[in-house]
Structures are given as C-alpha cells and as structure tokens.
Write a structure and sequence with these properties.
single chain, Nucleotidyltransferase, domain 5, 6-stranded mixed beta sheet
C-alpha cells in the first residue's frame, strides 16, 4: 500500500492539487483554472461556484491518476488570502468573491491608515491597513453598499465557502483569519475594534480553528463524487504564503523565502507574533507555534509584461530576450532609477496611490537601461522589506527564491547584488501546495522535516558581486529619498 498526502491550493486564477508520498516527493498533480472578472475599475472578482468546481474536479482528476495500491491518507488546504464573499440567510452568495487584488476600498483604507485606531488595529492583527484586506473591503461595503450589507448574514473567505460546500460547516483556519485585518493574532479571537469599524459582529464570521483542525465527513452532495477520499483525513491548513514557507523549509528567521510571479513577496518564519512599529510588515499565523512575517508587493513579473506590451512598440520579445537586453547594461543602469509602483504598492509603503517613476533620464539611455532600472527598482523595494525584517529579527543569512523569474539568471543576480545575500533558486515547485501536503502529514502524526529545501545541493546559488554591491549601496538611499519627496504628489487628483 502506497500512502499519499494531498495538498489543495486555492489560488487567484486556478486551483492546484498534488499528492506526495511520505518522503515528500510529488507523485501526482492536477489543476483547474477560472477567470477573474473586472466589471469596473478597481474591481477584481471571481465566481465562487467555479472555484468550488475547480477544487472538486482537480481532486477527481488526481484520484483518476492513482494506482490500485495508492491510498489518500490525509489532505490539507492552502488558499490565497484576503478574499470576501457575502452570503444571505440561505447561505447563498450575494456577491462574487472579492479578491485581494480588488482596490475599490482604497479611499476608506487611506483614511483608516491615518487614524490612531487604524494603527492600533494593525498592531493587534498584524495586517497592514490596505484595500487588499477584508477589513477595509467590509468597511467600504458598510459605508457604500448598505442595502447589500443588510441582506448579509455571513461573511466568509473563499476557503471557508469551500469548507461549507464540502463539509457543511463554517470554519476558518487561524492563518486565513489572521490575514483579514480583524483577527487578534495574540489572543486568536476576532478583534472588537476592527469588527466595529467593519460594521460586523462575531456571528457574521466563521468560527476560527487551528491549522490541524479535522474537517468532515464530506457532505452528501460530494461524498459520491469524491468517493476515493471517503477515508481521507481532511484538515483546515493555512494561507498560501505561510504554507509556501513551510513547503520550502524556511522555518526560522535566519533565512527568507522570496517569490516573484505576477507579484512578489518575501517572508521569514518566527516563533513570536511580532508586529512592526512602523507598519511595514505583515504577520500571519502559520500554526499553533509559528508565525510568518514579511511583505508582499504588487511589483513583480507583471511589470515585465507591461514593459514588453507597452514599451517595445509591439516587438515580439520573450521574457528571456528581455532579460538578456537588461544584462547588457551596467549595474545601476548608468544613473537611471525607477520607482516600480505602476500598480500602487503594498510593502513597505502600503499605499495604493503610489505611482511608477523613472528619474535621471539621459540621452544615452536605451530600452535596455529602462528595463534594467525597472528590475533594480523591484530589488530595491525587496531590500527595504528585508531591512525591516532584520530590524525585528536580526540578520538574514540567505534567501530561498521561487517563481518564474528564476529562469533569468540576470534578475536573480541583481537580487543577490542588491540584497547583498546569497540567493538560492529552489527546486521545490508549487511550494504552497507542498506545504499543505506536509500539513496533512502532521494531521496524522507524521512529521515531515521541511529543512531539506534549504540544504539541498540541487539549489543553484547566486552570490553577491562586490563591485555591483558598491553601486547598489549608493543607490538605495537615493531610491528612498526620491520616493519620500514624490510621495505627497502621488495621491493628488491630477496624478
């Protein structure tokens, strides 16, 4: 009998399901995608029923791959954070899922961020005040959609809605709850002050449960469709960012996990729920003992797409060709500097009004200079987050990196040079799903040693170039100064 452990990762645009063996090796994988809806500027939504369908169909496909001797022992869930779904008295959706990328509440968020109460809520919840958060979304809905809120009986995340559909109960794991901006990460209870500003009470929300909370049995609706999992132990799991750290083996603050996909993030794992006095970092719960602190960024691979689509006159260039262009330019882009905030920014500023800026343009600057400066700007932003983490937890020795940007040695080297730390390109794919599978192992008492990802010889190591580092040491203060001088203008109506 082959014992398998399942990780289910509910993402923004697709759900991925993997099965690993007791050594943590991926045996099978399946996924289903679903569209995002943008009915108007600032609105980014998804259909909750399509997400449920994607999870169920992915699990069924995974089961179809299994051999007769395979047994799905346990399963656990990862999910994107910050989603909001309103349900009526029959537990039917009143809205689509409002995703983390939705910015309709930015005026409300901006006002809350300037209030002493906003700072107090951040220090207790660990979630910066920003339009991504359910706290700000719900405060906006309470203010501008009163009729809709009057019909609302429950407010859930997409993960909690999936739990309701599959298992018939409304629960939310501590990790997802801690990313709402309404959950006290010290007492692990809903925060009264945050709920009051969001226009909610406890009874509107799901019951918070630990990561290893056991769900089930499957509801009658899905018991037949998912018969292959009738004996599987299902547990609640955690959020995608926290489980990515777990799946990568970043289990303390001496290493950090860095991801660049469409957006970017960098995180450490710690044993205490520390929050940043300057509100630059998030702190989310992983499990009963561990927390994940770091910063997420809107700036990432999407900027490469923007540059290719809008700055190259329709030139049909691959991302690798773009990176090769950037590699022809010296470190520091010969004085050209970029604030890469084309989509506003989350960490470390948490200001959705931020704008992108190129500064220092000279006659000799080419497309390649503009591209490299953009990549360096993303790296500078990561460095500011790293500095904040090191203020709280001490030195970070190395960075374990994941994401599509690893295909570009030039970009990884820029990160190593700017951060002045070794960057290791991880061999772990789908780290959040892997982390969820590891959590499933724990639900049955099997402990997986997650430190193997850090020490693996398969990781490619990029070390800082001392000559480049000198350039970037001088560049960072100017990058920070430029932002500080321009920031007051970003929220001006004419901007």
């Amino acid at each position: 009998m082959s014992e398998l452990y399942v990780g289910i990762d509910i993402g923004t645009s697709n759900t991925k399901v993997i099965a690993v063996n007791s050594q943590g090796e991926v045996q099978y994988a399946a996924s289903r995608g679903y569209p995002l809806h943008t009915p108007q500027d600032g609105y980014v939504e998804q259909d909750p029923e399509l997400v449920v369908e994607a999870a169920v169909e992915s699990l069924k496909e995974l089961a179809s791959m299994a051999q007769p001797q395979d047994r799905f022992v346990a399963a656990s869930f990862s999910s994107a954070m910050h989603s909001v779904l309103l349900l009526d008295e029959e537990n039917a959706p009143l809205t689509n899922v409002i995703t983390w990328a939705d910015t309709r509440s930015r005026d409300v968020a901006h006002a809350l961020k300037e209030m002493p109460e906003g700072y107090a809520i951040y220090r207790k919840t660990g979630t910066p005040i920003h339009p991504m958060t359910p706290f700000c979304k719900l405060a906006w809905l309470t203010r501008y959609e009163q009729e809709l809120m009057e019909k609302t009986r429950r407010v859930v995340s997409i993960k909690a809605y999936l739990f309701f559909k599959l298992f018939g109960e409304f629960v939310v794991d501590h990790s997802i709850a801690s990313a709402t901006g309404m959950f006290d990460i010290f007492s692990r209870t809903w925060d009264d002050l945050a709920l009051r500003y969001a226009g909610l009470a406890d009874h509107h929300l799901s019951r918070p449960v630990p990561a290893l909370y056991k769900l089930g049995p499957l509801t009658e609706r899905f018991a037949n469709e998912l018969a292959a999992y009738s004996a599987t132990v299902f547990c609640a799991g955690a959020s995608d960012g926290c489980l990515a750290n777990y799946g990568l083996g970043v289990m303390d603050s001496s290493h950090a996990a860095l991801t660049i996909g469409t957006s970017g993030a960098i995180r450490v794992t710690c044993a205490e729920p520390a929050t940043d006095p300057e509100s630059r970092l998030f702190t989310y719960i992983l499990d009963d003992q561990l927390y994940v602190t770091g910063g997420s960024m809107n700036s990432g691979g999407i900027l490469m797409q923007w540059f290719r689509d809008h700055m190259l006159d329709g030139e049909d260039a691959s991302f690798m060709q773009l990176m090769e262009k950037a590699g022809t330019v010296p470190a520091g882009s010969e004085g050209l500097i970029c604030l890469p905030y084309l989509l506003g920014e989350r960490a470390p500023h948490w200001n959705s009004y931020d704008k992108g800026v190129y500064f220092g343009v000279s006659y000799q600057h080419t497309q390649a200079h503009f591209l490299r400066a953009l990549m360096e700007g993303v790296a500078y932003n990561f460095l500011q987050i790293v500095e904040a983490m090191e203020e709280l937890f001490g030195p970070i020795g190395s960075i374990l990196a994941t994401g599509g940007f690893l295909k570009s040695p030039i970009w990884v080297q820029i990160l190593a040079d700017v951060l002045n730390k070794p960057v290791l390109s991880s061999t772990v794919g789908d780290a959040s799903a892997v982390g969820a599978a590891f959590m499933a192992m724990r639900a049955t008492g099997l402990e997986k040693n997650p430190s193997l990802s850090i020490t693996s010889d398969a990781n490619t190591r990029y070390t800082p170039n001392p000559a480049h580092r000198e350039v970037y040491t001088h560049g960072l203060p100017f990058f920070k100064s430029l932002y500080q001088k321009l920031q007051p203008a970003f929220s001006h109506p004419s901007s």
